[in-house]
Amino acid sequence: NPDQGTTFFLEFPIQNKSPLVSQNEIYEFTELKEQEYSKTEEPSATKNELPLLLIIEDNADVTYYLQACLQDQYQIQSSRNGKKGIEIAFELLPDIIISDVMMPVMDGFEVCATLKEDERTNHIPIILLTAKATSEDKLAGLENGADAYLIKPFDKAELIIRLNKLLYVREILKEKYSSTLISSQAKKGSIENKLDTYIEKVEKIILSHLE
Fold it and tell me: Residue 162: which domain range?
């Protein structure tokens, strides 16, 4: 109609032609994806495989902070005083120890000296943490057997590096000691074998003369 213009009629289907996915199918798909991921995921080290760290510290906040910083790299045991810390060290034989200096019952210097004088624990590296920053205090810590001396507030990165280096050196010494021990045992066995052979020859000579 020239006076009214053009009229268009469009029809849209009410029915949704795309396939619907049920909740069960969604759940099964999600579960499958999680299972597939778990199969390809790299296995992480268990807690039992991590080095054991003993923290001897009477300040709960400092202990909590140390645990938060180091819990991914270490198994951690803690004690609130030096005397109890020594008992735990004798019982568990940790791989490394962090100890405060100023503590009730027994201070860190005494802890360090006691552990370093005992053959069960004298190989364990000890890091002393303290607010006492004088040269005399540092020397006292080192004289009592401390392997490192850090001033509070300490730098987290420095602490981690110190721990890693001390454990690394200890591992190298352990390997060298083990290889030396094995070598000496092998030499001892060789000497014993030669001695047995010599004794056997002497016995044969003696027996031949007796005949």
Answer: 50-169
Evaluated on CA atoms 52, 172, 126, 64, the torsion sign reads: negative
Of all residues in the chain, what percent carry a pLDDT higher than 70? 61
Tokens of 182: 């094995």
Residue 103 lies in a domain: yes
> What's the rounded Cα separation, in Å, for the pair 81 and 99?
9
Does 186 map to a domain?
Answer: no
* This prediction's pTM: 0.64
Q: What is the CATH number of the domain that holds 118?
A: 3.40.50.2300
Strands (E), the chain: 52-56, 75-79, 96-100, 126-130, 148-151
Dump pLDDT digits (tens) for 75-126: 999 999 999 999 999 999 999 999 999 998 899 999 999 999 999 999 999 9
